[in-house]
Design brief:
The chain is mainly beta. The protein has a single domain, classed as Porin (Beta Barrel), CATH 2.40.160.190. The chain has four helices and 16 strands. A 16-stranded antiparallel beta barrel has the order 1-2-3-4-5-6-7-8-9-10-11-12-13-14-15-16. The chain starts with 6 loop residues before the first helix and ends with a helix.
């Protein structure tokens, strides 16, 4: 088990970043066609700061077609990752099954696809874990538009909004009786700087988003991958409590245009609080071609 992170440390700048350019549920066919000859997937993501010399948030192991076979996933509570769980991942024609890696007869979660191959929902299996809630998704123009989480018999809904370039700009909770002023995650972007493959995950998350998060760990929802460099993230929780606000600087990309590292700084500052590294595994398409020829 990885070292736990405190909520206070996370708000001080222990941001979490992850990415997979894996195209599993075909919703951006033009992007997939461009990537087939250069398939690269996230194998691990880590960060470091003055308090944490090095911490890995998640790792992935893949089959030769680029589908996740095992993921060690950071699990959230109170805004921060408090533990990791390792899943053995199995794929069928209409679902993904997340097995307990230590007891593969036990299904913790399973996700289903709709007729267009998009993630329809994720649900508890025969060995439920209280950190994962039933969650369904709605789409508009081939992008995830809404997320509906069942918590204590109630439905919590959040809406996803994008700018004209296709960058995710906000995830907004719907008000409820107990939280009349809802929470919101907001992102800003550079108007001119881009990367071929990137993703950002620099916000504290509620435990109720864990099911959504584990799907992101294995590369689903590629439409949430921005085109432009993300430059800031702000999180406001219910009733106007600002939980997080950081700027993103010093983006580094490799020769293929993939984001490989960046820094988090306080707004208006140039002093790095945390540094993030993205490790990629590539050439899965070459392996598939070799297998087909054998």
């Amino acid at each position: 088990m990885k070292k736990s992170l405190s909520y206070g440390a996370l708000l001080a700048g222990t941001a979490l970043t992850l990415f997979s350019c894996q195209k599993v549920n075909s919703i951006q066919e033009d992007k997939e066609d461009n990537k087939k000859n250069n398939l690269c997937l996230i194998s691990s993501f880590s960060y470091s700061n003055s308090s944490v010399p090095s911490e890995t948030i998640f790792t992935n192991h893949y089959d030769i077609s680029g589908r996740s076979l095992e993921v060690e996933a950071g699990i959230f509570s109170g805004g921060a990752i408090f533990t990791h769980l390792t899943f053995s991942v199995r794929w069928t024609s209409d679902r993904i099954i997340f097995l307990d890696a230590g007891a593969v007869q036990d299904t913790i979660l399973y996700a289903t696809f709709d007729r267009k191959g998009r993630v329809e929902g994720i649900f508890p299996g025969n060995k439920p874990n209280d950190n994962f809630l039933p969650t369904t998704f709605e789409y508009n123009n081939n992008r995830v538009r809404a997320m509906n989480i069942t918590l204590a018999g109630n439905i919590e809904t959040s809406y996803f909004d994008y700018d004209q370039r296709g960058n995710l700009v906000s995830i907004s909770d719907v008000p409820t009786t107990s939280v009349p002023i809802p929470g919101k995650v907001e992102h800003q972007y550079s108007s001119s700087e881009k990367a071929v493959d990137q993703f950002y995950f620099d916000e504290p998350r509620k435990f109720s988003w864990n099911s959504f998060t584990v799907l992101q760990y294995i590369g689903l929802f590629p439409e949430l991958q921005p085109a432009n460099f993300r430059t800031s993230t702000k999180v406001t929780w219910g009733n106007n409590y600002q939980a997080y606000h950081m700027e993103i600087k010093n983006h580094q990309v490799d020769g293929n245009g993939k984001l490989v590292s960046y820094d988090i700084v306080s707004p208006g500052s140039t002093t790095t609080i945390s540094h993030y590294n993205i490790n990629w595994s590539c050439n899965f398409s070459d392996l598939v071609q070799k297998q087909a020829n054998n």
